Backbone:
């Protein structure tokens, strides 16, 4: 079983990673080629392309200028500890024991606009390049065309290496669009997290993102080996609802949160 997650815009560059082990991104050469193209954009170009403030555009122009290989623990950080959004707060990898970290490394992949696919312990340098960014490049008009089948091939290799036949999609629509489900050598299961609000259940973005991280944390804590075991996921009040679910879309509901 292999989980896929989206990355996060927010990065934690200041805290030291709690583990020394690291790997290098499998598609680092592809990332290097992409960064060479991205580096040609001035801050005002980045602001227009990414729809961000001048301050954020300048920060990322500086990141792009500083980005270089080879990656080492001195100039880069393991991805699962660098990303710092809602998903990663739910996952809280920094509080896992060594067996839990090993589980993540074997069973989780992080999709990325710059790096394609990252393992949790892959070193990365700071960047901002969301998968949906319409960045024209030598391979096409956007990042989906840049990565084309490479992301799917990399996931298939990970599935084969771990002997897995199921992919658990916990990525956002924007990121999973970079995967070709019809070419995956796996059953695809997509968990959906809905929260009660005013008597109705709906997807609330902040809660749903956190729940994706919580599910991976649950899997790591319980060393989940079979997809069906994920139906027991109950962190922070979520419960699997068979009536709302289908064969490949598993719905987890949570009662309204107060306070």
Residues:
């Amino acid at each position: 079983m292999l989980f896929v997650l989206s990355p996060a815009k927010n990065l934690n560059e200041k805290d030291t990673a709690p583990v020394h082990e690291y790997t290098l991104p499998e598609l680092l050469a592809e990332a290097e080629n992409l960064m060479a193209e991205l580096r040609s954009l001035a801050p005002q170009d980045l602001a227009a392309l990414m729809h961000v403030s001048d301050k954020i555009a300048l920060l990322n122009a500086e990141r792009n200028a500083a980005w270089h290989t080879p990656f080492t623990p001195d100039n880069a950080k393991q991805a699962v500890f660098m990303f710092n959004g809602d998903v990663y707060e739910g996952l809280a990898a920094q509080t896992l024991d060594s067996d839990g970290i090993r589980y993540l490394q074997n069973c989780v992949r992080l999709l990325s606009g710059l790096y394609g696919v990252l393992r949790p312990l892959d070193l990365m340098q700071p960047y901002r390049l969301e998968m949906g960014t319409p960045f024209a490049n030598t391979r096409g008009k956007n990042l989906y065309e840049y990565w084309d089948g490479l992301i799917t091939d990399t996931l298939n290799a990970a599935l084969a290496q771990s002997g897995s036949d199921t992919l658990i999609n916990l990525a956002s629509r924007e990121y999973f669009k970079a995967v070709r489900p019809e070419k995956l050598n796996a059953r695809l299961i997509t968990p959906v997290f809905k929260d009660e609000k005013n008597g109705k259940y709906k997807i609330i973005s902040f809660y749903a993102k956190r729940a994706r991280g919580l599910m991976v944390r649950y899997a790591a804590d319980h060393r989940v080996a079979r997809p069906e075991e994920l139906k027991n996921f109950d962190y922070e009040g979520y419960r699997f609802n068979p009536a709302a679910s289908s064969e490949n879309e598993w719905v987890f509901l949570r009662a309204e949160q107060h306070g």
Remarks:
- Residues 205-222 form the longest helix (18 residues).
- The mean pLDDT is 97.
- The first strand starts at residue 2 and ends at 5.
